[in-house]
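TA notes, week 10

Several of you asked for a full example with nothing omitted. So below is the full record: structure tokens for the whole chain, then the designed sequence directly under it. When grading your own attempts, check the secondary structure regions first.
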């Protein structure tokens, strides 16, 4: 309880409540009742707060997520004040995307792109947002179109995503073309050159060195054996055709490392997840120090959480080089 403004306000409210009770008692000269009231009311207030209230809510979230949410509020206000400023909407979209609120990010990027329809950066960001919102490993049609337009202008992210998409579809000539163009615009000291060159070499070989369907991966990487179930009280409320997303995320936050899309009638299910399931090359299990697995029943079919969805998540799991085991039970209603 470190917020002095809150404490002063709370103390004032308690004193005001005491005044309404104490003044009549003073007139009645009932000293015993007066003393009991002075002691009981503040004590009862604190007790109710600590046992029923949310003491932790006094202190704002001072972590990275709290800072981003604070920035979102400021950015949204700026965007509303200057609705024709594409930069405000773009920054708002980036903030929402970092919070994994992909529906809001999509709206902001679309607004920015409406204002500046030729901006390759905006097309690439919107395309990537649509990919994450889909919960799939392959690009949605609109995302592929937006990224192709951005790639024509030399956007590096667009070339990378299009190259990966072609690689995963075994369209190796297209992948070669995308990766070659990307290498041509990457700085010589870029820390992703080695990864791009590995993918390019594999694509040139027609995928012959591919060990999984997502790219050249090391088979010695970590493997997660995961059991996904649902509480019986929630299972009885499902018809069976609802979409279930199982997402592996860094414990620190950010876009999902891997996503599996299931149907509710497949639960309970046993899954094995490794670097071959990475949404993005170089961002699989082995790229994280610790992870959290989130399983969610999406009634809308959208990867973005909605009110009323069912969800469950694991505790933080340290990533190691050996097999990992975890269980996640969907037992909460958002």
């Amino acid at each position: 309880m470190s917020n002095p403004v809150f404490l002063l306000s709370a103390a004032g409210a308690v004193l005001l409540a005491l005044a309404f009770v104490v003044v009549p008692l003073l007139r009645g000269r009932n000293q015993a009742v007066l003393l009991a009231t002075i002691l009981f009311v503040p004590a009862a207030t604190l007790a109710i707060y600590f046992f029923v209230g949310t003491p932790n809510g006094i202190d704002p979230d001072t972590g990275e997520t709290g800072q981003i949410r604070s920035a979102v509020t400021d950015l949204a206000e700026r965007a509303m004040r200057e609705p024709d400023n594409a930069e405000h909407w773009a920054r708002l979209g980036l903030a929402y995307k970092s919070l994994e609120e992909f529906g809001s990010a999509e709206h902001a990027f679309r607004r920015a792109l409406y204002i500046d329809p030729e901006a390759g950066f905006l097309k690439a960001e919107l395309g990537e947002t649509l990919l994450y919102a889909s919960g799939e490993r392959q690009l949605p049609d609109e995302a592929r179109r937006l990224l192709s337009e951005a790639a024509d202008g030399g956007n590096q992210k667009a070339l990378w995503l299009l190259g990966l998409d072609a690689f995963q579809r075994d369209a190796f000539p297209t992948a070669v073309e995308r990766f070659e163009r990307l290498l041509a615009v990457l700085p010589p000291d870029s820390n992703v050159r080695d990864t791009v060159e590995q993918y390019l070499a594999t694509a040139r070989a027609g995928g012959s060195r591919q060990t999984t369907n997502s790219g050249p991966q090391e088979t010695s990487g970590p493997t997660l054996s995961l059991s996904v179930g649902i509480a019986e009280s929630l299972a009885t409320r499902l018809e069976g055709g609802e979409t279930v997303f199982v997402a592996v995320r860094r414990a620190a936050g950010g876009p999902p490392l891997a996503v599996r899309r299931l149907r509710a009638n497949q639960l309970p299910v046993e899954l094995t997840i490794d670097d071959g399931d990475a949404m993005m090359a170089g961002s699989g299990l082995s790229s994280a120090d610790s992870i959290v697995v989130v399983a969610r029943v999406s009634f809308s079919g959208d990867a973005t959480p909605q009110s009323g969805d069912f969800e469950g998540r694991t505790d933080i799991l340290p990533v190691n080089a050996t097999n990992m085991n975890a269980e996640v039970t969907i037992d909460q209603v958002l």
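The longest strand covers residues 290-298. Use that as a sanity check on your answer.
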